[in-house]
């Protein structure tokens, strides 16, 4: 007998979410993680990668997804979520962030502030997509800090498409080229998360080198 849905679904596990909700679940999670502060704990990176892998159509997989609808759902959810988060931040200011008691969320706020101050609006909005928690809090913060709407919209679309479509296609490519890739899913997801942080780490290193060069010239 199949257990009730609320007992069967683990919202922290990508495969569980996909088995229960399929493509629709991907869109909803993307929206919640990037647009609603309560979604900061959701597994965005691993969900996109795993969903792409499950589009490869191997016969032994219980869950099978279609690539085209998945890409649309992931992109729409990610873009609409970020825009919603921005509008919430613009209306509510920092009140919602201040009310939260989550230390992880407040740590994300600090990192988001550092990104905005160090790299400027455009680069910060793009880089934030690749950092868990930061991609949740930066959007309402951008609204609260009155980042120009056109600037935010342009760069959140660029970052959102690269992140959502890129990770999904990465999962699809690996699932299509490596036999029984499911066996290596957990280490692959960990690797994808690490790789997604490379743009941010490279910018941090570049900023440090620039600061050291300026210090040496003085």
TrEMBL record:
<dbReference type="InterPro" id="IPR032816">
    <property type="entry name" value="VTT_dom"/>
</dbReference>
<comment type="similarity">
    <text>Belongs to the DedA family.</text>
</comment>
<keyword id="KW-1133">Transmembrane helix</keyword>
<keyword id="KW-0812">Transmembrane</keyword>
<feature type="transmembrane region" description="Helical">
    <location>
        <begin position="152"/>
        <end position="172"/>
    </location>
</feature>
<dbReference type="InterPro" id="IPR032818">
    <property type="entry name" value="DedA-like"/>
</dbReference>
<dbReference type="Pfam" id="PF09335">
    <property type="entry name" value="VTT_dom"/>
</dbReference>
<feature type="domain" description="VTT">
    <location>
        <begin position="42"/>
        <end position="172"/>
    </location>
</feature>
<feature type="transmembrane region" description="Helical">
    <location>
        <begin position="184"/>
        <end position="205"/>
    </location>
</feature>
<keyword id="KW-1003">Cell membrane</keyword>
<protein>
    <submittedName>
        <fullName>DedA family protein</fullName>
    </submittedName>
</protein>
<keyword id="KW-0472">Membrane</keyword>
<feature type="transmembrane region" description="Helical">
    <location>
        <begin position="65"/>
        <end position="89"/>
    </location>
</feature>
<feature type="transmembrane region" description="Helical">
    <location>
        <begin position="12"/>
        <end position="31"/>
    </location>
</feature>
């Amino acid at each position: 007998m199949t257990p009730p849905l609320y007992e069967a679904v683990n919202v922290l596990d990508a495969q569980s979410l996909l088995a229960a909700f399929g493509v629709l679940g991907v869109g909803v999670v993307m929206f919640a993680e990037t647009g609603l502060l309560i979604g900061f704990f959701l597994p965005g990176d691993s969900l996109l990668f795993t969903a792409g892998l499950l589009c490869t159509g191997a016969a032994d997989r219980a869950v099978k997804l279609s690539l085209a609808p998945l890409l649309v759902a992931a992109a729409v959810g990610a873009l609409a979520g970020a825009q919603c988060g921005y509008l919430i931040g613009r209306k509510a200011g920092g009140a919602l962030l201040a009310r939260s008691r989550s230390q992880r969320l407040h740590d994300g706020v600090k990192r988001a502030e550092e990104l905005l101050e160090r790299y400027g609006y455009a680069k910060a909005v793009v880089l934030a997509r690749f950092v868990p928690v930061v991609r949740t809090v930066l959007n309402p913060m951008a609204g609260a800090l009155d980042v120009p709407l056109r600037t935010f919209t342009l760069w959140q679309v660029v970052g959102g498409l690269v992140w959502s479509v890129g990770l999904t296609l990465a999962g699809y490519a690996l699932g299509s080229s490596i036999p029984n890739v499911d066996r290596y899913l957990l280490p692959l997801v960990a690797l994808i998360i690490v790789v997604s942080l490379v743009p941010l780490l490279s910018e941090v290193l570049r900023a440090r080198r620039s600061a050291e060069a300026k210090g040496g010239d003085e």
